[in-house]
Amino acid sequence: xxxxxxxxxxxxxxxAIGCLxxxxxxxxxxxxxxxxxxxxxxxxxxxxxxxxxxxxxxxLNQLPVSIxxxxxxxxxxxxxxxxxxxxxxxxxxxxxxxxxxxTTIVLLQNGMGSQQAIAxxxxxxxxxxxxxxxxAWLESFLTIHRAGHGKTWLGPLSDKAHAETHNHAIESLVxxxxxxxxxTENVLAKLQEKLAIxxxxxxxxxxxxxxxxxxxxxxxxxxxxxxxxxxxCVLAVEGYSGxxxxxxxxxxxxLTVTGENYSSSLQxxxxxxxxxxxxxxxxxxxxxxxHNIHAPAHETLMSQLAMKDIY
Length: 311
Ligand code: KPL
Prior knowledge:
With about 300 residues, the protein is α/β, with parallel strands linked by helices. It has two domains: about 10-185, NAD(P)-binding Rossmann-like Domain (Rossmann fold, 3-Layer(aba) Sandwich), CATH 3.40.50; about 190-305, Orthogonal Bundle (N-(1-d-carboxylethyl)-l-norvaline Dehydrogenase, domain 2), CATH 1.10.1040. Helix content is about 40%, strand content about 20%. It has helices at about 15-25, 40-45, 85-95, 115-120, 160-165, 170-175, 185-210, 220-235, 245-255, 265-270, 280-290, 295-305; strands spanning about 10, 30-35, 50-55, 60-65, 65-70, 75-80, 100-105, 125-130, 135-140, 145-150, 150-155, 180-185. It has an eight-stranded mixed sheet with strand order 5-2-1-6-7-8-11-12, sandwiched between helices. A hairpin with a 2-residue loop joins strand 9 (about 135-140) and strand 10. Helix 7 (about 185-210) crosses helix 10. The termini are far apart. Ketopantoate binds near residues 198, 258, 261 and 264.
């Protein structure tokens, strides 16, 4: 009998999603190493085993985690990139000497645009993208809270990934117990669906400093509807088939079920971090501009955010 060989993963981006995947891989006995910048790595005490603290449903779990520096030399077989969209390309460039022609890359960024930029920069590699509705937030380094179990779609992005009939490492992610991961041939459609929702919610909650549920108030609904209408119209140039009314229905459903939550963009603002709105509404505006489509609701939203120094 041939022994089962489990793939080894490196995770780059020690935020909430990177830590969540690191914990799930550990629980599924798949080895993985969380990569941090060399400066951060030097600050870690070398004589103690780092622990990842994950709280879920009021219960705290502490799991050992293997941490390495981006500056190490050993090759990376499989890379899960979980940085923010704006940091993704630079992060992958920082480990490019460790990538081989056999490296599989999985990109888990919000919004769109950063994934395509990476697939174009690394055409020789099997690049996959993911779209996730998993909810987790980072309290401090290696301390996260899992807010909700979502679904993750993974699918090929680069030509090399599209040509593969089988990818052992990707299959290891699909089989993870404790995560709901499925494969799709059309990951761009999944990214568009998520982008359409984020484009109506994230910027608005950041601007009005409110919970998701507050956007259901009548005073916000006309703007939300206009954003959804424009999103459907702009994304149609890339094959999106949903109507504005369908997007609005999905957005209002998300606002209802996540009513108490604060969007990731509002959390970024509150923690003085740059948001990913450039990769959400910004992506739509670039696309609109390229195809001469008028998108005044998105334009107004982005300028109102800029007036409040929210980028
Ligand atoms: O994905 C989200 C985010 O906060 O980024 C939503 C769907 C808006 C849930 O909060």
